[in-house]
Amino acid sequence: MALMTGDEKHGPAATSTLDALWVLYDRVLRVGPETAEAQGRDRFLLSKGHGPMAYYAVLTAKGFVPEEWLTGFGSYDSALGHHPDRLLVPGAEIGSGSLGHGLPLAVGTALGLRARGLGDPRVWVLIGDAELDEGSNHEAIAYAGPSGLEALHTLVIDNASATHARPGGIAARFEVAGWSVMTVDGRDHEALYAAYTAPHPGQPHAVVARVEPRHAA
Hints:
Helix content: 25-40%
Number of strands: 5
Radius of gyration: 16 Å
Structural class: alpha/beta
Shape: globular
Oligomer: single chain
């Protein structure tokens, strides 16, 4: 991450996701540079696409992105923009950064896999707590639970930046819609891994990862 400069405003948005992203790519996701187009791969969608430095750093560490690209981050002719572009960034499943789009896209991805009879791939989406201010996410949450989208996993980075509080907290919003939910320390790698891999038969799964409060959506 130190090789990337020019987006310090969104630095906290990146650092708040780093541990959660690393554990996910290092120990959970069944995808790599050689399987990035494979039909049976796991899908990871970064909805929290502003401040993507941690995402680019993890993709680089895992061999998707050449390290020499990092120093050009955010420049005119760089593939690594301030919002990821799926047509330019190896391993990126969606173009993102506009808040509230990733979770609905993940629901559609899970439904598409189900319709094609692909029961093995899992779908992961990372959202920020402030994205829950967007109504599109609540429609997606309300739909996914009763639909039993077991392949769907939502990782919520909670850095206390949301404008509107959730009655009962973030976890309660998912639970009331029929999701499996776990809340963990977003810096504790073992706790993250345990939450990521917890069984949730017949339900979509949400992991709320709490990190230090920062002014970053």
